[in-house]
Amino acid sequence: MSSAAASSLILHPALVLIAGALLLPFLRGTARNVAVLSAPTLALVALWLLPEGRLWQLQWLDYPLAPLAVDKLSRLFATIFALMAIVGGLFALRQQSRLEIPAAFLYAGSAIGVTLAGDLVTVFLFWEFMAVGSTLVIWSAGTPGAWAASRRYVAIHLAGGVILFAGITGQILATGDAGFHAMRADSIATWLILIGFLINTGAPPISAWLPDAYPEASWSGTVFLSAFTTKTAVYVLLRGFPGTEILVWIGIFMIFYGIVYALLENDMRRILAYSIVNQVGFMVVGIGIGTEMALNGAAAHAFAHIIYKALLLMSAGAVLAATGRRKCSELGGLFHSMPLTTICGTIGALAISSFPLTSGFVSKSMVTQAAADGHLQAVWLFLAAASAGVFLHAGIKFPWFVFFQKDSGLRPPDPPASMRWAMILFAFLCIALGVWPDPLYALLPYTIDYAPYTAAHVITQLQLLLFSGLAFFVMLDYLKRTPTITLDVDWLWRIAGPVAAQSFRDALRITREGLNEQLLSGRQAMADSIARHRRPDGLLLRSWPTGGMALWVMVMLLAYLALYYLR
Amino acid sequence: MKHRHWLDDQGNVQTLWRGFLVLLALTVVAGFFVDMHPHFEIERWFGFNAAYGFVTCLLMILGAKFMGFFLKRPDSHYSRDQRDE
């Protein structure tokens, strides 16, 4: 086969990046910095040299597997993951932890591996590697909080992996086909796969793992974390479950969950973590609507979202690295001394709010448009309210409380050059994609016929957003930050679970002690009675007089005689 | 502070506020002159998006505030399980 020789020359982009991750710990200084930037760049080049189709095929047991399969959708996601690894690596160059970047590259490489997997077995393998890589990223922050959070995080993701594994096994057994293509949630196996995927999107009821874990990573670790897990989950939903109606309502729940919890939150990076759930909600709604416009919208929004969310978390990371503070109630007035971070953070905030001329405007509006085209008025009204709500909880709230509001008196400088350039690069992309969306549209899985910049659309969006801004400032008293957190379902496994386990242990101990006591007294009574009979003077062991024995023998002989005569 | 930023001047902040309010009015007035391509009947109402954005945001803030009464805790709430074990 001639293509076999050609395909053996093909490099798997995921393996390129993972090989880089394994090499990095042995490098120091400039060589290491060069490797940090070139490993994901090589992966990106390798990706774009790949033709479309199932490139690697192999037989495992009875199933044909395709560990490397490329089409437009997988190339779109793999591209943004590689880009994120490059710019994230640049941002994290000065990170002291020697573990974080290799872990992040293992994580990013595995995410690329999922997007290029043509079968469910490969999806599962890379899915688990992602869980390992991301846990190491959280862990490498090195604080007790991060250690505790990483253990909760890995527990959730391993449990999700078990559910996914059960689903994949069932699906392969039922259909005899290990290929990864669109499924319908109509059997236990496909439901398990869907649930496994949804856990990683941050879907209810356990969205809480995301804002619990991500903000505990280092100033650069959270930037990586924001990109891969949730967007890989969006990718597998796009490929596996397009048009599954329940996703519309799950997505709408995620959107409003993110808004309400972010409004109540005080920690700047937890605000942004909640808004990841919110933004992924928009994508999940698009996947649930399932028309070509909606799926294009979900894919484009994932692409744009990774860039502006990373930018927002970079600006938050710069503030954290410079001040060591995370709480809005302790920040403010930083625009005085961090002008570049302020501008880049604000551009990210405008992009997440879908302001005209930013990337969010040209991507999210496709999902809204798909809802309108499908005459889904309720969904459309929710999405419109949510658009206004995004500006409220992330678009204004984040930059306002961190960079403006009261003057905290802090005057930290802008971050070092590597961090500045990473922010500038992504800020540029946020604007560039908004002004000139055609290159992004060309990457989308379906041919697109959509013009975002109509006068009606721009004015509609400006009205929604600016009046949302008015509401923010009118209600500012209600939004004053307090040093509080908001209870979420993670309460169940952080407080209720341990308390329940403790009280179960206590109940067990009490029961055991009670039982022991009763058994002991029973045993004691038995022992006493045995001892009573077997004491030297007890019934069974005391010495009997011989006369007594002769008397009893005589009685028995007499009885025998009497019976003999009676017969 | 040796160096005062132009945003530290209350006068400039006032000007920004006025500019913002003018912008708000302009976006609503623009609805008169542009065909808004409404998808749904409700969108035909004049200034629908402006009012909808404002009112839904108020509701979200009040809703969050209401939830906060029940769910807010001091941020040391979980400090017990943050300890290294």
The ordered string of helix (H) and strand (E) elements of chain A is HHHEEHHHHHHHHHHHHHHHHEHH
How many structural domains can be distinguished in the coordinates of chain B?
A: 1
Tell me, what's the shape of chain B?
A: flat
Percent in helix of chain A: over 70%
Helix content of chain B: 55-70%
The biggest beta sheet of chain A reads: 2 strands, antiparallel
Question: What is the mean predicted local confidence, pLDDT of chain A?
Answer: 92
What are the segments of chain B in which pLDDT stays under 50 over at least 5 consecutive residues?
none
Number of extended strands of chain B: 1
Major sheet characteristics of chain B: none
According to DSSP, the number of beta strands of chain A is 3
Q: Identify the quaternary structure here.
A: heterodimer
Please indicate the percent range of residues of chain B in DSSP E strands (runs of 2 or more). Answer: under 5%
Most extensive chain contact? A-B, 59 and 47 residues
Question: Structural class of the secondary elements of chain A?
Answer: mainly alpha
The global form of chain A is elongated
Count of domain modules of chain A: 3
What's the end-to-end separation of chain B, in Å? 46 Å
* First-to-last CA distance of chain A: 108 Å
